[in-house]
Amino acid sequence: MNCATEQYDLTGGKFVRDESLDFGGIRAGEGVNSIHAYPAMFHSRLVRQLIERYCAVGDYVLDPFMGSGVSAVESCVMGRKFIGFDINPLAVLIAKVRTTPIAKDILLNTLEIINRQYYDVIPNPPAFPNINFWFTQERIMSLSKIITSIDSIDDEDIQRFFKITLSETIRAVSQTKPNEFKLVRRKKPCQFGTIKLFTINSFKNIKSLDDYYKLNKIIYNPNIQLVNTLTGDIQIEDNSISLLITSPPYGDSQTTVAYGQFSRLSLQWLNLPYDSDKKSLGCKPININGGVPSPTLYMILSIVSRQDLKRSMHVFSFYYDMFQCLKKIISKIKIGGHIVFVVGNRTVKGTQLPTDVICVEMLESIGCTHIETRVRLIGNKRMPSKNSPTNITGEKAPTMKYEYIVVCQRNG
Ligand SMILES: C[S@@+](CC[C@H](N)C(=O)[O-])C[C@H]1O[C@@H](n2cnc3c(N)ncnc32)[C@H](O)[C@@H]1O
């Protein structure tokens, strides 16, 4: 098998390459999860299967790195009670929009009002740094007219829906390359007029929301919070969560997916904080110490540090932070409850980091048993095809091909 499981399968056949989880060709974000792209989104079918398998109707599901909320959507429509955290305000907005059904007629009427007001509203452009680098003057005027109309909507749910639709439009009409997560200037401008594209995006999202919630009903409203899992106050009762399912960041935001950078222009337009990359796991390098119970991690660090000490400190800091989060959360999981980590094993300085194995070692050290690790092709997940593992501008390498679904159980 051409994946890291071959190298690291020292656990007696608990690693399974499961081709049925590749979901041959089906997009990661179907239905309501197609509203607003987000980097490294869960595959909704994977999450659905895991929820069905590891918790019952009425049970609590927790996702401490929730992103755009695929786990929130799936939990809600499967009758589970959901709690989710993220540090990125755009992720929180997307997750709330995807889990808030709103009548189609109300949204269509509001869209008509925004379109009508567009020609009368006096633009009041924001003045964030570099606005003129990323947007032409014409785009700035048009976007600021739309945002003024959206701000005047009284209903919070409807206002949030149109903010997310505007966010999709902002990215598309900006001077950034459409398929890059980081902000890279593009050569060819977008051909659509701003209000026209906003209207097209609105119709698309209204249809996605309406089609989805005609077939699926939300039983318990989700609890979605802008919270830093590492440093924030986690208000969850001990022994209450049946399933923790999450896909943490792949590593520090400088050399992996920069969620904050992906979201920055939208957040600046929406007047929300845009510094989440500075709060993400592993954002500051720290001296390597004995604080992470993973022999595999120290073996890998000894290789990376010989080539680049600073990089190895970044790598260590990421796993150190992740372990602090796990220690903080583990008491919230029921005895016998499950913990599912969906992770990718990235490469740093030519050495693959077996995050799946490191997660197992960390979880075992805090009273969990490894049940299994399933391996799927990452093909349908929205990921850049190249990244910059050396952190040198222009130097790129292919990103991960597989993802690892690590399942553990909290012991009694
Ligand atoms: C791989 S993404 C999750 C994607 C998600 N599974 C989805 O379907 O969209 C990881 C998320 O972790 C968030 N994150 C990073 N550090 C965090 C922290 N300390 N607390 C909470 N969220 C954090 C990032 O903002 C990002 O949205």
Give an account of the 3D structure.
- The chain is an alpha/beta fold.
- It folds into two domains: about 5-90 and about 220-260 and about 275-410, 3-Layer(aba) Sandwich (Rossmann fold); about 105-215, no CATH class.
- The protein contains 13 helices and twelve strands.
- The protein has helices spanning about 5-10, 45-55, 70-75, 90-100, 105-120, 130-135, 135-150, 155-175, 195-215, 260-270, 295-305, 310-330, 355-365, and strands spanning about 15, 60-65, 80-85, 225, 240-245, 335-345, 345-350, 350, 370-375, 385, 395-400, 400-410.
- It has an eight-stranded mixed beta sheet with strand order 1-9-12-6-5-2-3-4, sandwiched between helices. The chain has a two-stranded antiparallel sheet with strand order 7-8.
- The chain is globular, with a radius of gyration of 22 Å.
- It binds S-adenosylmethionine (SAM).
- S-adenosylmethionine binds near residues 65, 67, 70 and 85.
